[in-house]
Amino acid sequence: MKSILFVASEGLPFIKSGGLADVIGSLPYSLKQKNMDVRVVLPLYLKIALNHRESFKKVKTFPVLTGQINTVATLYEKDVQGVIYYFIEHQGYFEREGLYGYYDDGARFAFFQKAVLEMLRELQFYPEIIHSHDWHTGMIPAMCKIHYANDKKYQKIKHVYTIHNLAYQGNFPVSVLTDCLGISDSFYHDGSMRFYQGISFMKAGILFADKISTVSPTYSHEILTKEYGENMDEVLSYRKDDLWGITNGIDTKLWDPSKDKLLSKKYSLKSYASGKKANKKALQEELGLRVTPDTMLVGMVSRLTNQKGIHLILEKLADIMGLDLQFIVLGSGEGHIEDAFKHMEYKYKRRAVFYCGYNEELAHRIYAGCDVFLMPSLFEPCGISQLIAMRYGTLPLVRETGGLKDTVTPFNQYDNTGTGFSFASKSSDDLYYTLRYACDTYYLNSIGFNAMIENAMKEDVSFEKSCKLYLEMYNMVLTKK
What we know:
Layout: E1 3-7, H1 19-32, E2 37-43, H2 46-52, E3 57-66, E4 69-80, E5 83-89, H3 91-94, H4 105-123, E6 129-133, H5 140-147, H6 152-155, E7 158-163, E8 171-172, H7 175-179, H8 186-189, E9 194-195, E10 198-200, H9 201-208, E11 211-214, H10 217-222, H11 233-238, E12 243-245, H12 272-287, E13 296-301, H13 310-315, H14 317-321, E14 325-331, H15 335-347, E15 352-356, H16 360-369, E16 372-375, H17 385-391, E17 395-399, H18 402-407, E18 421-423, H19 428-444, H20 446-458, H21 464-479
Parallel strand pairs: 1-2, 1-6, 2-5, 6-7, 7-11, 11-12, 13-14, 13-16, 14-15, 16-17, 17-18
Antiparallel strand pairs: 3-4, 4-5, 8-10, 9-10
Helix pairs in contact: 12-16
């Protein structure tokens, strides 16, 4: 049995701020079904402590020394469906209102990574592979190889590093290298950890891991270019032979319209017509839209940022609302975008709704009740929402980038194939024309539209396919001399 330790900054069912948490909540369990010893370690944030700590088993407290950081960590654990989750407690670093964005993030996650490595000795558990995720854990391969160079148990460990979003890189002043990570500044001067005038946790992960992966094949190619490489394209090109693109899946037990208790009416592939009709009506009533079951209902659940292509919608909003449709937006983000959607709701009463914030229960009902789901992202490493939408028989309309291109097959009106609608350019005109085409298909080609719903609901959006690729990558790492 292979042993793998996942190290991440967030993960379901305990804490989530983005798609990383969905992966950490689903992939380890899928690998567990393949007869693997899979464990996960997370920081013990305030929200986790308040909601879950009473159910955790306290393991031990141990010292953590790295650079000028000299403190202790307390380790907890909990078994979730056969996957052991560990939690690193340090009240000063992690029991705060938010997860990230603090002035001392470099120190916080330097401590976390060193605590994880010390945890192995305390547990006498030395996994064959440590699988680290995103910038918060990017230093683990380097720290393991540098700090424990004389310990054969650590040196036997192989390292896989996954980039979930290259835009967030963990870039800090050089002082973090010596003061917080306890690593010689020679690694800055030789360029292996230098990033412009500072250091990068992500760059270290890319260079020191045995294999690197990212969350879709298309994104793995995009990040080798200047356009999508976030100034890390040359570093990635250096390791391109070790770079894998493996598409994410979703938790198909959590996201299952036939068992979803948050819906007005549960439905399956065989009963989607009546099920989606009932959920649309209930959603329209809940949000104050005009109850017109035959009107195409477009939904969006998103962070309201430039990355998500929101400006493409706003540039054509008047034209979009000129189509025969209703529009629901659930999300929060940049102030001027929120203001624009508030104005949309005011201007198009009973045709458009903006829910500012996030509501998990409402998100489920949007996925179930809408006809089309909008994701015009400028870049999208993988994306989770389009997979959920397809699972619920709501057709994604996406820009062809990253995981959106890999997971959504555009509609072919001649043979009724496809699972959604797509456009390629970063053009608001193309977004509008594609949405108008979706509208025409909905009203004038119900056979084609319904065929797409069935195609989408039949699509395998679980982690089963990606699990096989991860196993292939792990085997390659372990057999590499």
